Amino acid sequence: MSHRQAGPGAPGADRLPTLAAPGGELDRLVGDGARTLGAGAVWAVGEADGTLGGGSHGVLGQGPYARLRPGPDTLYDLASLTKVVALWPCAGVLRQTGRLPLDEPLGRWWRPAAGLPAGEVTARQLLAHTAGMLPYTRFEELYGRDPAAIRAGVLAAPLHRPPGTAVEYTDRAAVLLTHLVEDLGGAPLDELAARWAWRPLGMADTRYGPLDAASAGRAAPTEYDEGVGGHLRGVVHDPSARLLGGVSGNAGAFSTARDLARFLTALLAPPPALPWGGAWIGESLREQTGGLAPARGLSWLCAPGTDPAEGTFVHYGFTGTGFWVSRRLGRWALLLTNKVHYDRGVQRLTELRNAFRRAVFG
Fold it and tell me: Is the pTM of this model over 0.90?
């Protein structure tokens, strides 16, 4: 168990097992929050040694899903957590093997970007969301439905701002990074993520969709889709990822609380053979935005309501997912919901996330 010093307001390591116990403070907090949301929720908290505790509340959805309860093996559409669970470790492997320069403009060394607006940005800026790319996607409207045309459009699109002048979160950065990582890695992103991250960590449930029938049967449903005449279940919710065939760095991966606990534990205690451990994790979980707000690391966001110096990082997914990690405190936490199944309102989910973060990290 970690005994790192807790920051102001953060519970000490000796209190975490009590907080995370069945029926303890965290379980009550998430249970109350799930009732307020009207959506089911799964949570877990852990340290470098693994999971300290967790729980689940509510049901998976409306109608036929009201009979189903979430649990540690429920497959959630991770939405933008895909940026961290799939794309970020692959970028780390390429960085640590010398294939991904972080601070050279892409156009100087990567042929597809030469002479195009995207050639002005660096990989570090893409990872920190300071590249100045357009803040919207609108891929089908602008480029059609062909994945190659979408990638070409992203490369050629004019920049929204000069690189390095503002933090502006955009899925275009992850789509461009997907193209770059696949080109440098010599394989599709789903293959690279499985090879470099998921299999080494024993994340047997984590995969890109569309899910097979057996896996879809334990997936949390997301929104109703007119095109399919029902709720999406086992098919990625994000429309840009769907246009790109379901495999993209911005969204598309599915995982469980059980697998994400393995992933987050590895950020605190990387296995010796992990090809993106050590230096990449340390570099990424530091502020990389030069004082610009909101402060970000590489792929990760400094948790809202905390000082970047505290070192608590988070990522959220539009479907209702989220996880946190603090190397300084030696702890992690996850909170998974399928809130988008019910509606797109975010206020109550934001309140639950912030309360959960305060209870675990201060």
Answer: yes
* Residue pLDDT, tens place only, 173-199: 999 999 999 999 999 999 999 999 999
Q: How many whole angstroms separate alpha carbon 295 and alpha carbon 287?
A: 6
d(CA 52, CA 265): 11
Q: What is the pLDDT of residue 241?
A: 98
Beta bridge partners of 57: 41
At 250-298, the pLDDT tens digits run: 999 999 999 999 999 999 999 999 999 989 999 999 999 999 999 999 9
8 A C-beta contact, residue 114 and residue 107? yes
Query: What is the pLDDT at residue 50?
Result: 97
Is residue 337 a contact partner of residue 321, using CB atoms and an 8 Å limit? yes
52: left (phi over 0), alpha (psi -120 to 50) or beta: alpha
Q: Within 13 Å of residue 247, how many CA atoms lie on the same side as its CB?
A: 16
d(CA 117, CA 138): 18
Give the 3-state secondary structure of residue 267.
helix
Strands (E), the chain: 41-47, 50-57, 76-77, 207-208, 224-225, 230-231, 253-255, 301-302, 312-317, 321-326, 331-337
Taking Cα atoms as reference points, which of 343, 193, 299, 300 lies closest to residue 255?
A: 193
Instruction: Decide if pLDDT at 8 tops 70.
Output: no
Region of 77 on the Ramachandran plot (φ > 0 left; ψ -120 to 50 alpha; else beta): beta
Helix residue ranges per DSSP H, 199-248: 213-216, 239-243
**Whole-angstrom Cα Rg for the chain:** 19
Going by the DSSP 8-state scheme, the letter that residue 66 receives in this structure is G
Convert the pLDDT of each residue in 81-91 to its tens digit.
Answer: 999 999 999 99
Distance, in Å, from the CA atom of 355 to the CA atom of 48, rounded to the nearest integer, reads: 23
What would the two tokens of residue 255 be? 């995982």
